[in-house]
Design goal:
With 237 residues, the chain is of the alpha/beta class. The protein contains 9 helices and 8 strands. It has one domain (3-232): 3-Layer(aba) Sandwich (Rossmann fold), CATH 3.40.50. An 8-stranded mixed β-sheet has the order 2-3-5-4-6-1-7-8, with helices on both faces. This is AB hydrolase-1 domain-containing protein. Belongs to the AB hydrolase superfamily. Epoxide hydrolase family.
Length: 237
């Protein structure tokens, strides 16, 4: 049985060939494979040995969004794993819309983690990937979903009110439209702690927009490393 050791979040059907991205990264030693998970074949990019850091991309992204962190964190003593989520990149894209429920997406990640055969992982997620990584609210019943309006919120309604109970670091760019939306700054700086009891730090990266792991790649890699290394105590290679 594995456990999530910590969670680092970046604010909240794309089929693109990975061939060009793989060629670009050939000299960096990133390995690619396909894993049977939850009834589909999932493409995974990974590099390094040591404690596992699992990187979940957002929309519209691929594993490639984490290329800088894969190279950087693996050089610091971590095994870095970055999948293409269901329907993205070289991971299977089932034709039925019913195959893309949140339970399917979460099930894919659970199966992937099980396949890694490790006791614990550190989870880093961006955008849509952070919704998938967030724990489900056990108090939300199916009838509540039926009462919900048919909007984008219905996709995540079962997670509304759920709390992350592992150590958390949250990073967001000050130019991200989410951060600049009405009331969001106040929520992040004060009320966010109620939903994330073990929130240890909020980092607002200046001059950076939504795709923070690419726009401020080195800074983000360093933030991840210094946060997770408090728990894994890995000596860089």
């Amino acid at each position: 049985m594995w456990q999530v050791e910590g969670f680092l979040s970046f604010n909240v059907h794309l089929v693109v060939s990975n061939n060009n991205f793989r060629k670009e990264m050939e000299g960096d030693g990133i390995e690619h494979r396909r894993v049977e998970v939850n009834g589909i074949k999932m493409h995974v990019a990974e590099k390094g040995k040591g404690p596992v850091v699992l990187l979940l991309h957002g929309f519209p992204e691929l594993w490639y969004s984490w290329r800088h962190q894969i190279v950087g964190l693996s050089s610091l003593g971590y095994r870095v794993v970055a999948p293409d989520l269901r329907g993205f990149g070289d991971t299977d894209a089932p034709s039925s819309v019913s195959s893309y429920t949140m339970l399917h997406l979460v099930g894919d990640i659970v199966a992937l983690i099980n396949s890694l055969a490790v006791d614990r992982i550190f989870l880093v997620a961006h955008d849509w990937g952070a919704i998938i990584a967030w724990p489900r609210n056990p108090k939300m019943k199916p009838v509540d979903l039926m009462r919900a309006m048919i909007t984008t919120e219905i996709l995540t309604s079962a997670w509304t009110g759920a709390k992350v109970k592992v150590p958390v670091k949250f990073i967001i760019g000050d130019l991200d439209l989410v951060y600049t939306s009405l009331g969001m700054k106040d929520y992040i700086e004060s009320a966010f702690k109620k939903d994330v009891p073990n929130l240890e730090q909020v980092v607002v990266q200046e001059g950076v927009g939504h795709f923070i792991n690419q726009e401020a790649a080195e800074d983000v890699t360093n933030h991840i490393y210094h946060f997770i290394n408090k728990y894994f105590h890995v000596t860089s290679t």
